[in-house]
Write a structure and sequence with these properties.
Elements lengths: L2 E6 L5 E5 L17 E4 L26
Antiparallel strand pairs: 1-2, 1-3
Bound molecules: zinc ion.
Zinc ion binds next to loops.
Amino acid sequence: MPIFEYVCQGCGAFFEQLVMSREAAVSCPACHGLDVAKQFSAFSTKTAAGFSGSMGAGCGCAPSG
Ligand SMILES: [Zn+2]
């Protein structure tokens, strides 16, 4: 199941939510607000700039720590 990243528009909290359905309601764990913005990780491409390079070298999957 996909895990999406969200940013609460109310308090600015950043959290991850395991989404089982596209229409699943997501609420902020901090303030329980429903005004959250989904963040697209890994596959977000606002512009084509830098995307035409060779994939694989530096995938951005840096280990968090
Ligand atoms: Zn919040």
